[in-house]
Design brief:
Number of helices: 10
Order of helices and strands: EEEHEEHEHEEHHEHHHHH
Radius of gyration: 29 Å
Distance between the termini: 93 Å
Strand content: 5-15%
Number of strands: 9
Helix content: 40-55%
């Protein structure tokens, strides 16, 4: 699939958070901005509009003019930082803790397949989400320029003026994909959700991969099976040590998912062989017991 670019809007006063640095707020050990950057890691060029800060991956920085002018000046600044030949661009706000790469790629695919000018997500109530969307870059630049000419400004204008002039395809998604963090209650809800039983492992693995700069998709089930085999078949401390060694071996073999799976299979087979040696079925047969013979007579005769 062709590569898209991305513009992430990370400015704003965050008044409902008491003026806190919203993009830097941590959810699941990662800033909200880094979580969104993870969702658009497939972008060719990623522009973040906002104050510079450390990020999990390299980005291009831009600032809107005037500062605090709202989403349209920020979007305009982001588009200006893209290459002139940019064809499609994901436009995302930096406060979406559960947006993922699958959703962004799905929007991009829907845009390309439709032949339209934009693909927007809808929330659970059917409202358009223009900051969870993928646009064709040229029509987006065109409409922003027309708005600036018509109103003699972009600051303070609502995004709906932009989307109203575009040919849009609208798609639904998991409600969590458009869940945004505007208040501390939203932050608390997001932090609680990622620690729920059905989400915590995936969230933890995603956080570790981001922290270590890894983009490898790993079959966690096979790793968990290996850890179980090592713990039960050898000894409990063998589980983390074995998975570490498997990762090291896979890295030396190229580091792709196939290398991980191959190292897991080999280590799991070793653990099973190790365990089988202690099973009753694998024990050598006991030597036959000897029947006691007749006692020897004093003169040595049988």
């Amino acid at each position: 699939m062709p590569v898209y670019d991305a513009v992430v809007l990370a400015g704003g006063a965050a008044r409902r958070l008491g003026g806190a640095d919203k993009p830097g707020v941590s959810v699941g050990g990662r800033s909200l901005l880094d979580r969104v950057l993870g969702a658009c890691r497939g972008a060719g060029r990623t522009v973040v509009v906002g104050e510079r800060r450390p990020t999990a991956r390299p980005v291009v920085w831009a600032l809107e003019h005037p500062p605090g002018g709202g989403p349209l000046p920020a979007l305009d600044a982001g588009l200006r930082a893209l290459a002139p030949e940019s064809e499609t661009v994901a436009v995302l706000s930096a406060d979406l803790p559960f947006l993922n790469e699958t959703t962004v790629r799905g929007l991009h695919g829907a845009l390309l397949a439709s032949g339209r000018e934009a693909a927007l997500l809808l929330d659970a109530d059917g409202r358009e989400q223009p900051l969870v969307a993928v646009y064709r870059t040229e029509p987006l630049r065109r409409e922003i320029a027309l708005l600036a000419t018509e109103y003699d400004r972009l600051a303070g204008l609502p995004l709906r003026l932009l989307t109203a002039e575009l040919d849009i395809i609208r798609t639904g998604a998991e409600p969590s994909a458009v869940f945004d963090c505007d208040t501390w209650e939203d932050i608390s809800a997001a932090r609680a959700r990622i620690r729920e039983h059905g989400h915590v492992l995936d969230e933890w693995i995603a956080a570790v991969k981001d922290e270590l700069g890894l983009e490898l998709d790993v079959d966690t089930a096979i790793l968990l099976d290996l850890a179980r085999d090592a713990a039960h078949g050898v000894t409990r401390p063998a589980a983390p040590l074995t998975t570490f060694l498997v990762g090291y071996a896979a890295g030396r073999a190229g580091g792709d998912p196939e290398a991980v799976a191959d190292a897991c299979r080999r280590a799991a087979a070793l653990a099973r062989r190790w365990s089988e040696e202690t099973s009753p079925a694998s024990q050598p047969p006991s030597p036959p017991s000897r029947e006691p013979g007749p006692a020897a007579s004093p003169d040595g005769s049988g």
